[in-house]
Structure formats: C-alpha cells, structure tokens
Amino acid sequence: xxxxxxxxxxxxxxxxxxxxxxxxxxxxxxxxxxxxxxxxxxxxxxxxxxxxxxxxxxxxxxxxxxxxxxxxxxxxxxxxxxxxxxxxxxxxxxxxxxxxxxxxxxxxxxxxxxxxxxxxxxxxxxxxxxxxxxxxxxxxxxxxxxxxxxxxxxxxxxxxxxxxxxxxxxxxxxxxxxxxxxxxxxxxxxxxxxxxxxxxxxxxxxxxxxxxxxxxxxxxxxxxxxxxxxxxxxxxxxxxxxxxxxxxxxxxxxxxxxxxxxxxxxxxxxxxxxxxxxxxxxxxxxxxxxxxxxxxxxxxxxxxxxxxxxxxxxxxxxxxxxxxxxxxxxxxxxxxxxxxxxxxxxxxxxxxxxxxxxxxxxxxxxxxxxxxxxxxxxxxxxxxxxxxxxxxxxxxxxxxxxxxxxxxxxxxxxxxxxxxxxxxxx
Length: 426
Description:
Elements: E1 2-7, E2 13-21, E3 27-36, H1 41-49, E4 58-63, H2 69-72, H3 75-80, E5 85-92, H4 98-105, H5 110-122, E6 126-131, E7 143-145, H6 161-171, E8 174-176, E9 180-184, E10 189-196, H7 204-211, E11 215-216, E12 219-220, H8 223-228, H9 235-249, E13 258-264, E14 272-277, H10 292-306, E15 310-313, H11 321-331, E16 332-333, E17 342-343, E18 348-352, H12 364-371, E19 379-383, H13 395-403, E20 407-411, E21 419-425
Parallel strand pairs: 3-4, 4-5, 5-6, 6-8, 7-9, 15-18, 18-19, 19-20
Antiparallel strand pairs: 1-2, 1-21, 2-3, 9-10, 10-13, 11-12, 13-15, 14-21, 16-17
C-alpha cells in the first residue's frame, strides 16, 4: 500500500487529502474538509485546480468536520468547476428540525450551506451520518469497509432541498462515533475513525427557549420566524440567534466539530519504507533554533521505527481534559472482530492543531496527560491565513510547543508551505 498525504496551503481554511494505491493497483482518494475564507479563496481555488492526486476525477470519501465556510466552501467548486465526483460523504449528524440545523451550522453561512447541499445532490453523493458520543455508552467499535458503506443521496428532482434532507437524516445510514471505516487488504488495513462530540445532553429545548427570548417585531421570536425568514433577518437579529445558541453550548465562537483518526488499525508485521517529508519551510517568523531541521529528520526516523504514521485531524474541535479523555477512550479500539484491543493513540505521529491554532481550543497538558501524546515526538500543524484578524495561530501556543521540542509547521496560503509525506507499507 502506497499512501500520499497533503496538507494543502489554502490560507485561513482547511483542505487535507490522502491518496492510496493498493496492491491490486486500485486508487482511493480521501479528503477531510475543503474550504477557505474569502480573502484566501484564491489559494483554495489554486489547490483544487492542481489537485493531481484526484486525476481520476473521483473522491471516494469526503469527511466534513462542520459547516463553517472556511471548511466547506470549496466542495461546490470541486463538483461544479472541476467535475469531481464525490462518492461518499461522512459528516456529523444534522438535526431533524430545520430551525435547529440553522442555528447549528451557523445562520451566517446559510446560503453557502445550501450551495454545498446542491453540489452533493448534483454529484449524487451518498450521505453517511456520524452520531455523537453518548455518556456512559459501551463502545464496541463496528467495522465498515469503505466500498460497502451505503448512504442515501439527495433527490435530483426534489423541490425543497431541506425537506429532502429531513427524509435522508431519518432514513440514511448512521454510524456511531468511534466506529471505523476501512481501506485496504487484510494484511495492511488503513482506517478512519470519526469522533464527534455534540453535548452530554440533548439541548434542543434549551436552544428553543433561548431563541424564544429574542425580541422580534415587537414580540418574542419563534422558531418558525427563523425558518421562514432566514434569508431576510437583519444582522442584529442574526447575531442574537447566534449568541442564543452559543449561550446554551457555552462555545467560544465555533461549532461542534468532528475529529478523525487516519492511520493503521494494527501494524504487527508490516515493513514501512520509502518515507518522504516534503514541507519546504517551517513557520519562519517564529524563531526556531538551528537544531530544527536536524531534529526534524530525527523525529521522522523515530516515527518510522516506532510506526507512528497516523494523523489526528481535529477541525475546530476542542482538546481539553474531558474531550482528551474521551478521544483516548475511543481510540483504544474494542470490537467483535478484534482479538485484542488496539491502542490507536500509539500510532499517532502528527496532529492538526484545532481551530487553526487557537489558544482557546487546546490545552497541551491535557493532550499529554489525558490523550497520551508525547509532544516531544509529535508533528503538529495548523492551517491559517497570513494577517488573519483572529491571531491564528496563537503565538503563546506555538512557543509552548517549541519549548517542548514539538515540531510545528505553519501551512498558510503560499505554495511552498505545503506539507506532504509519502510512505509505502508492505
């Protein structure tokens, strides 16, 4: 099995791809998120146009972490401008109620969200939903082969795409957070493990109560007002709805987001060969010492020897104490088809810093203590736009990683910051 992975330089956004060539010559393309904020959209367009790994015109699986613009607005261009067919889309479960979906994915991106659904309808993509972690749930992971995973597609002739989506949410295939999707042969099985945290409790009633406290046209807003006037609500009212949603989930300006482990299920006898690390420069405006490049080579050699070849993609999720404990628990795989539990954390050699390197979304101590990752032996990366107004990535966070001798790579809009690796597993 040959694997080529790319962290695409798209600025303030996210676009990550993995290309597989299996022993029988079959090629498989997997993508995690594809989007960028408007000032950096040109960089995203460039990367989509030059997406040579998808020369067969097919993405076999697309993982969507969440529906913020900077993670998904490239999907429409992939389908409509590059004629790329997306076979299967694995995404966090959407709410059945339209009003709750609107608040969940962000009403400021409603038009963008509808464009994505339209693109998936044109591509006849099968939608597979990931149900969130449930407190106290006995996690016995279920295996799904990618080729046999079946969802449902949006109807081409449906008059109302939201109504059609309601039917699919109810009747399409759902998998649990922590189930895994497999690619490859029995001897070398590469898996994807989606992990989604929504809330410990179903809070739709609390969200509804918060919305119905918003003044609107001399009375209290209703969820019907939200559904029927989503395209015409004044900016002040949009902000009030967003604030109501965030007050319930106590979020720091980002939505619940799906993580994904990409790596081997087990590598007991596999030989790893032909590894190549092709990022041209680390983030240069942080002061790294002269040992950086030599240390980089040593870490990669260590990863090969210890088989740390998996990546943890994090979207805009939060990696603090509780989440780290849950992620570690899920990645300690147990399943009916597994003779022994597999500790997938031990394979992780690279991790995306959540939310473009925001200091509010990660606690390094929790990553080490509760997730079990040794930052000294971890490659970390963040996708961001130069000059962004959010101060991503956070300077203090990067310095803390540097002080722990963690390898950090900043991937922004300039092509030479592309981060990629290639490996061969027998």
